[in-house]
């Protein structure tokens, strides 16, 4: 034992001359300084990102009752999956994601293409489109809930429909209209960011490409298809993925517009179910299990999606 | 200006010109209606009395505008206190993000300690984790901090500390610092400046635009955030605006709730109108090259 501890000490002293030793000391000091600057951020990441990630997975296999924590295997998962709301929530969440993709993904791109062609009032239009993004979501959603989606004829949307001699709607009180209404509000609140990002990438398209396409006799739609879309493909693919990951976590829309579950459970989302289990049914372990399921679904989707989009190259 | 989808010449002549102007007017009208219309409806609707808001068809202008809903909202929901809370949390968020995230980005960009890239990678990896997945374990952490067993419930630290763990900010700042020439730093070192001194006297003065973007994003983030403050700031004294309005919405007349929502939205709208250039530049620079 004694020789073993001494050996490396003497060995190091013999091998390293004095010069490299001070350089090593300086290197160590530099590293320490570097980490002194990093420590605050590392502490916060460890406490609120890295550690919770592991803890969430651990929690999902545990059960805590009266302060006693024990391992329960897959019990939490079984309980969560057997909850009838589980499948409803996933169905609703997928439905919301798909509707939001149709409306919320297409509209910003079209708006950006149109805005990019206009030579006047550019600043004004950009401000307009981004304005709703700056509102606190709770404020915007109360506006939709009380004024726009008022099911009586005094509501803003019903008044417009009536004015146009179209049938009015019950909005959030109708199970079939709940989702479209939530998607509409959500798109209005969130589309500004995507529009501005598309506008920036549209401005990077070299004008010669359009010039050449026009000389070849390509009309406007053809030019969009053959120049605009291929040139913005990367950002289009990236935003589609970010949007899907964001809409799969839809929470505040059902909470405020539909009081959580909505008429006949038509609004319950997976994120709302996590909230329900964790903070109302006092089932933090079940909520953690649901969170892990959501993480897996999103991870599988992202991996699949990345594979699909990078394959084309 | 370089040409876009439709050439400049085409828009200037005859039919193209008429078409361009009619599209422009159409777009202006539709955008104003779609994006300002609801806000107009919100502000004026809250000026209407309970009877007027229930009238069919709804009135375009309030017939008898009254500020009662606004004053009721201000007094009954204690909006002054809620607004002060939110403002205080936002300021703290700006301070801690600026201090810790700039320090971290500086270390990763210029000091480059061993395993710096591993740390950066671990930070960026958190961008891939959906926020909802972390909400439960984060809450469990906040109510009982590991080792010290202190609860952060109703303490502003519960909002500030998680906000420092913002990989997007660190990435944005690091990329900006990367563009500052190494020669400047070397010159400062020759003059005997310590790393802290270099950061303070050379890096930070050159980074004002990006620091501005980070600060504005921090303020709007705190102002807009809902679920996390709802969980960790449950008492009426510590709530944020959005959470407070939501908590009162059940037993309050809808016009008063909307009036409160209008008041809650005013600060972010003002911030936006003042700093719109910085906000839009930050948004596109951060995402495009990311």
TrEMBL record, chain A:
<dbReference type="InterPro" id="IPR000515">
    <property type="entry name" value="MetI-like"/>
</dbReference>
<protein>
    <submittedName>
        <fullName>Sugar ABC transporter permease</fullName>
    </submittedName>
</protein>
<keyword id="KW-1133">Transmembrane helix</keyword>
<feature type="region of interest" description="Disordered">
    <location>
        <begin position="1"/>
        <end position="25"/>
    </location>
</feature>
<keyword id="KW-1003">Cell membrane</keyword>
<keyword id="KW-0472">Membrane</keyword>
<feature type="transmembrane region" description="Helical">
    <location>
        <begin position="127"/>
        <end position="148"/>
    </location>
</feature>
<feature type="transmembrane region" description="Helical">
    <location>
        <begin position="181"/>
        <end position="200"/>
    </location>
</feature>
<keyword id="KW-0812">Transmembrane</keyword>
<feature type="transmembrane region" description="Helical">
    <location>
        <begin position="232"/>
        <end position="252"/>
    </location>
</feature>
<comment type="similarity">
    <text>Belongs to the binding-protein-dependent transport system permease family.</text>
</comment>
<feature type="transmembrane region" description="Helical">
    <location>
        <begin position="287"/>
        <end position="306"/>
    </location>
</feature>
<dbReference type="GO" id="GO:0005886">
    <property type="term" value="C:plasma membrane"/>
</dbReference>
<keyword id="KW-0813">Transport</keyword>
<feature type="transmembrane region" description="Helical">
    <location>
        <begin position="32"/>
        <end position="51"/>
    </location>
</feature>
<dbReference type="GO" id="GO:0055085">
    <property type="term" value="P:transmembrane transport"/>
</dbReference>
<dbReference type="InterPro" id="IPR035906">
    <property type="entry name" value="MetI-like_sf"/>
</dbReference>
<feature type="transmembrane region" description="Helical">
    <location>
        <begin position="94"/>
        <end position="115"/>
    </location>
</feature>
<feature type="domain" description="ABC transmembrane type-1">
    <location>
        <begin position="90"/>
        <end position="305"/>
    </location>
</feature>
<dbReference type="InterPro" id="IPR050809">
    <property type="entry name" value="UgpAE/MalFG_permease"/>
</dbReference>
<dbReference type="Pfam" id="PF00528">
    <property type="entry name" value="BPD_transp_1"/>
</dbReference>
TrEMBL record, chain B:
<protein>
    <submittedName>
        <fullName>ABC transporter permease</fullName>
    </submittedName>
</protein>
<feature type="domain" description="ABC transmembrane type-1">
    <location>
        <begin position="83"/>
        <end position="275"/>
    </location>
</feature>
<feature type="transmembrane region" description="Helical">
    <location>
        <begin position="157"/>
        <end position="177"/>
    </location>
</feature>
<feature type="transmembrane region" description="Helical">
    <location>
        <begin position="115"/>
        <end position="137"/>
    </location>
</feature>
<keyword id="KW-1133">Transmembrane helix</keyword>
<keyword id="KW-0472">Membrane</keyword>
<keyword id="KW-1003">Cell membrane</keyword>
<keyword id="KW-0813">Transport</keyword>
<dbReference type="GO" id="GO:0055085">
    <property type="term" value="P:transmembrane transport"/>
</dbReference>
<feature type="transmembrane region" description="Helical">
    <location>
        <begin position="87"/>
        <end position="108"/>
    </location>
</feature>
<dbReference type="InterPro" id="IPR000515">
    <property type="entry name" value="MetI-like"/>
</dbReference>
<feature type="transmembrane region" description="Helical">
    <location>
        <begin position="20"/>
        <end position="41"/>
    </location>
</feature>
<dbReference type="Pfam" id="PF00528">
    <property type="entry name" value="BPD_transp_1"/>
</dbReference>
<feature type="transmembrane region" description="Helical">
    <location>
        <begin position="243"/>
        <end position="275"/>
    </location>
</feature>
<comment type="similarity">
    <text>Belongs to the binding-protein-dependent transport system permease family.</text>
</comment>
<feature type="transmembrane region" description="Helical">
    <location>
        <begin position="198"/>
        <end position="223"/>
    </location>
</feature>
<dbReference type="GO" id="GO:0005886">
    <property type="term" value="C:plasma membrane"/>
</dbReference>
<dbReference type="InterPro" id="IPR035906">
    <property type="entry name" value="MetI-like_sf"/>
</dbReference>
<keyword id="KW-0812">Transmembrane</keyword>
């Amino acid at each position: 034992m004694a020789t073993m501890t001494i050996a490396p000490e003497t060995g190091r002293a013999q091998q390293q001359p004095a010069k490299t030793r001070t350089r090593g000391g300086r290197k160590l000091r530099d590293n320490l300084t570097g980490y002194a600057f990093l420590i605050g951020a590392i502490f916060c990441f460890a406490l609120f990102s890295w550690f919770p990630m592991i803890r969430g997975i651990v929690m999902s296999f545990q059960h805590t009752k009266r302060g006693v924590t024990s391992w329960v295997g897959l019990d939490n998962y079984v309980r969560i999956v057997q909850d009838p709301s589980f499948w409803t929530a996933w169905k609703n969440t997928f439905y919301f994601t798909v509707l939001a993709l149709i409306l919320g993904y297409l509209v910003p791109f079209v708006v950006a293409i149109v805005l990019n062609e206009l030579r006047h009032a550019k600043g004004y239009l950009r401000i307009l489109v981004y304005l709703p993004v700056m509102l606190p979501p709770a404020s915007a959603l109360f506006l939709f809930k009380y004024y726009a989606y008022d099911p009586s004829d005094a509501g803003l949307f019903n008044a417009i429909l009536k004015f146009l001699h179209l049938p009015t709607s019950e909005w959030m009180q109708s199970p079939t209209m709940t989702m479209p209404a939530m998607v509409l509000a959500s798109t209005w609140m969130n589309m500004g960011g995507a529009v501005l990002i598309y506008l920036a990438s549209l401005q990077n398209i070299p004008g010669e490409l359009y010039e050449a396409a026009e000389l070849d006799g390509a009309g406007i739609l053809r030019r969009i298809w053959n120049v605009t879309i291929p040139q913005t493909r990367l950002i289009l693919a990236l935003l589609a993925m970010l949007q899907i990951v964001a809409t799969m976590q839809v929470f505040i829309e059902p909470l405020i517009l539909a009081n959580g579950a909505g008429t006949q459970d038509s609004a319950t989302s997976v994120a709302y179910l996590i909230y329900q289990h964790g903070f109302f049914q006092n089932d933090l372990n079940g909520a953690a299990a649901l969170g892990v399921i959501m993480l897996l679904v999103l991870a599988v989707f992202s991996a699949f999606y990345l594979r699909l989009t990078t394959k084309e190259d | 200006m370089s040409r876009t989808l439709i050439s400049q010449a085409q828009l200037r002549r005859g039919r193209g010109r008429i078409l361009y102007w009619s599209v422009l007017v159409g777009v202006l009208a539709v955008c104003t209606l779609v994006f300002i219309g609801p806000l107009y409806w919100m502000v004026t609707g809250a000026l209407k009395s309970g009877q007027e808001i229930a009238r069919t068809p709804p009135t375009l202008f309030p017939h008898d505008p009254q500020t009662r809903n606004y004053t009721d909202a201000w007094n009954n929901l204690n909006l002054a206190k809620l607004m002060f809370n939110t403002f205080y949390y936002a300021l703290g968020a700006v301070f801690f993000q600026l201090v810790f995230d700039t320090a971290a980005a500086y270390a990763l960009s210029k000091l480059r300690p061993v395993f710096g890239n591993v740390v950066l990678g671990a930070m960026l990896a958190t961008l891939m984790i959906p926020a909802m997945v972390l909400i439960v374990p984060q809450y469990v952490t906040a109510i009982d901090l590991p080792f010290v067993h202190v609860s952060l419930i109703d303490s502003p630290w519960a909002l500030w500390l998680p906000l420092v763990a913002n990989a997007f900010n660190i990435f944005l700042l690091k990329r900006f610092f990367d563009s500052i020439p190494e020669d400047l730093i070397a010159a400062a070192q020759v003059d005997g400046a310590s790393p802290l001194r270099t950061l303070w006297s050379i890096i930070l003065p050159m980074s004002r635009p990006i620091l501005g973007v980070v600060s504005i994003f921090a303020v709007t983030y705190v102002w807009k955030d809902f679920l996390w403050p709802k969980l960790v700031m449950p008492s009426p004294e510590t709530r944020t605006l959005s959470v407070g309005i939501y908590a009162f919405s059940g037993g309050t007349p809808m016009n008063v709730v909307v009036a409160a929502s209008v008041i809650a939205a005013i600060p972010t709208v003002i911030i936006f109108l003042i700093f719109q250039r910085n906000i839009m530049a930050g948004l596109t620079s951060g995402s495009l090259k990311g």
